[in-house]
Amino acid sequence: MRYLPKSPAERDRMLAEIGAASIADLFAVIPAEYRLERDLDVPRQQAESEIVSYFRAAGQKNATDYASFLGAGAYRHYRPVIIDSLVQRGEFLTSYTPYQAEITQGTLQAIFEFQTMIAELTGMDVANASMYDGSTGAAEAVMMAVRVTGRHRAVVAATVHPEYREVIATYAKHQRLPLTLVAYDRETGRVDLAALEASVTEETAAVLVQSPNFFGVIEDIPAIAAITHAKGALLIVSIAEAVSLGVVRPPVEADIVSMEAQSFGVALSYGGPFCGVIAAKEQYLRQMPGRLVGQTVDSNGYRGFVLTLSTREQHIRREKATSNICTNQALVALMATIFLTVYGKEGIRELAEHNLAKASYAAAALSGQPGAKLLFAGAPRFHEFVLQTAESPLLWSQRLMDEKIVGGLDLSRWYPELGNATLWCATEMVTREQIDAAAKVLAAGPLEA
Amino acid sequence: MTYPANYRYTREHEWISLDGNIGTIGITDYAQNSLGDIVYVDVPKVGDQVTANATFGSVESVKAVSDLFSPVTGTVTAINEELKSSPDKINEAPHDAWIVKVELADPAQFDALLDAAAYEAFIAEEQ
User: Fold this and answer.
1) Closest alpha carbon to A370 in A447, A419, A443
2) What is the DSSP pairing of strand B22-27 with strand B100-104?
């Protein structure tokens, strides 16, 4: 289909056809006071060379070469160049939903491999073709548990990413689903098991925890699962940092795992697109939202792939569909698939160990400075940690910025009870020199007035 | 296939037979034939309430998921466990492969349903 802008002659013909004298006539129903009576204030058209120059100059304003210790659900990892080379192929980049298996085997096979790798990593039986992101995936997992159990309440840990909790609350509000928040142990930064036990009842559909949690602390999944299952509720484990699965034991006791796969080769790009995924035990397969690709054989006996179990989805079952997700993050999931293929099993482990080592060094270096203290020090962690400082983060973060270092995330917005606390993340992308430089800034303390 | 004369039928293609005040419910040959290979049956739990003309579960075939409508109001007393592993029994013998048994709140509801002749006339019109 070619795109041809309409000419003035064509406009006149269309107006004549509908009996309008002018285009302005079409807007006559809009009261004059709401109509814009002048041209839009946009720059004149520019030559291609001018546009390229404009954007080059704008690009120069980007801050580059900063060390970043930000994490909290959006992680900076190295992206092998092969990812962008492959995902920009037209066969992947411009393809539509693979409804027609006979012309979309490549897309279907890539999704099938994504599902297979996610299921193996998370310790679940099946994984879907992907969700929008970790937050909507977590909310959909809660709704899935409601459908499975026929119960209508959910329990959410306060250590789940605060923005995930906001998304879950939005879903729950419109489903009139009561949510109970469970506090964390102030010593360990983990879910308070006694509080959890008191919150889970025979009416609880699901318990949702995150591990590693928002503080970077690894939750006691077997203990949480025992409490959850004792009341017949389902355990949902949300994973915001997929790379953690290289060293952290997969949450095999969970019934549903909801994961954000951004760490697997997806650029941060101002916050999106990300790539969620839901994985579950096989018995809950029919209540899973979203797409699922299956392996089969064609009429000649050759291996092939098809969308399967989609009879409950929107394009078939309309208003009675399992969920309101009607697509998947196919291209972003492909980035994750390529990433996992490039790294392989050993590579993911080495990457995770590298992150663990960097974070361990950073936690020691930073908490060793005057007035600084590592919170939840005794708990097992992955690559994030909470640092408490005598001085407000607002004050020292500017001194870090002067040294081209973006420091930890100020937690006071969500966890004011922790005082001057910041969440730091050290991936393989920060160097030992950068960690030492950050520690030096903290050691120097406030400048003399 | 013939439609048993002692059964009663709905316009949504369920059948029901009555023994005392216990109704046994399944889907008709016409229904299974329209759906194609049945791969999963979603049923209520024993003790659940069902309401006449309201959905009480669904049958999933390779083509579609279709709601099951209860012919009567009552309480579920049994579900056919065999359908969990062999939902294809419905395709093989639709008038024997029952889905749920229900204790009728009002046995008079049974008589208000279509008899075999009326149901056959109804599906002849649908085709």
Assistant:
1) A443
2) antiparallel
Residue of B48, B43, B49 whose CA lies nearest to B84: B43
Other C-beta atoms within 10 Å of A120: how many?
A: 15
Task: Give the end-to-end CA distance of chain A in Å, rounded to a whole number.
Answer: 68
Topology of domain A67-76+345-444, CATH: Aspartate Aminotransferase, domain 1 (3.90.1150)
Residue A408 pLDDT > 90: yes
DSSP string, A254-274: -SEEEEE-TTTT---GGG---
Is there a domain that residue B32 lies in? yes
Q: CATH number of the domain at A82-340, please?
A: 3.40.640.10
Using alpha carbons, select from B3, B66, B71 the residue that is nearest to residue B39.
B66
Contact check, Cβ <8 Å, A311/B67: no
- Is B61–A311 a contact, with Cβ atoms under 8 angstroms apart? yes
Q: For the domain that residue B108 is a member of, what is the CATH number?
A: 2.40.50.100
Distance of CA A193 to the CA centre of its chain: 27
Contact B52, B73 (CB under 8 A): yes
Structural domain that includes position B101: 23-126
pLDDT at residue A67 tops 60: yes
**In a domain? residue B3:** no
- Nearest Cβ partner for A311 among B45, B65, B67: B65
3-state DSSP assignment of residue B73: coil
* Chain A residues in contact with B45 (beta carbon < 8 A): 150
The CA distance from A146 to the nearest CA of chain B, in Å, is 15
Best mutation site among B65, B68, B83 for testing chain A: the one with the most A CBs within 10 Å?
B65
- Beta bridge partner(s), residue A277: A259
CB A279 within 8 A of CB A118: yes
Mean per-residue pLDDT for B35-44? 92
CB of B67 within 8 Å of a chain A CB? The answer is yes
Task: State the Cα–Cα distance between residues B91 and B47, nearest whole angstrom.
Answer: 27
Please report the residues numbered 69 through 98 in chain B whose beta carbons come closer than 8 angstroms to any beta carbon of chain A: none
Give the nearest chain B residue to A149 (CA atoms). B45
Choose from A312, A314, A316 for mutation: most chain B CBs within 10 A: A312
E strand or H helix at A228 = helix A221-230
Residues of A with CB under 8 A from a CB of B: 150, 286, 311-312, 316-317, 320
Q: What is the ipTM of this complex?
A: 0.70
pLDDT in tens, A119-162: 999 999 999 999 999 999 999 999 999 999 989 999 999 999 99
pLDDT in tens, A333-374: 999 999 999 999 999 999 999 999 999 999 999 999 988 999
What is the value of pTM for the model shown? 0.85
